[in-house]
Write a structure and sequence with these properties.
Layout lengths: L4 H12 L20 E6 L3 E8 L5 E7 L6 E9 L15 E9 L3 E11 L9 E10 L4
Parallel strand pairs: 1-7
Antiparallel strand pairs: 2-5, 3-6, 4-5, 6-7
Length: 141
Amino acid sequence: MKLPLHLIAASFLLSCASEPPPPRPPQPLLTAADHGKTVELIIGETVDLHLESNPTTGYSWNSFELPEWKVVKQVNHAYQGPQTLGGDQVLVGRGGVEHWRFQAIAEGETGLELVYRRGWEEPQDSDQHLKIRFKVTKAAE
């Protein structure tokens, strides 16, 4: 029995159809070492940024340039300070970590720049800066 040509063609096309790509691994944690990096995200993905900070001495990360919120939005920002052994008291003078989470919302490119200094002091040449670019697409390129 001969198969009709359209069934043969359909069978061939189905056998050639590629499987969907495997899920992307989670974005790596960003730190101060990622200064100058471009982070590629797909709409809906999130990325975490952790930076050492010491607000008990007045030093913290301040916004210099914020991402275009229509492209990437900040969904979380929290500070985790040092704890005494077994207690809940914050140790004054000891640093902790500031945590951010950003989520890709729409296609586009945008940047983030933070500066580490005391908010009430004038900017100094020695201030530490962190610049990160975000490139958001609909699918992996």
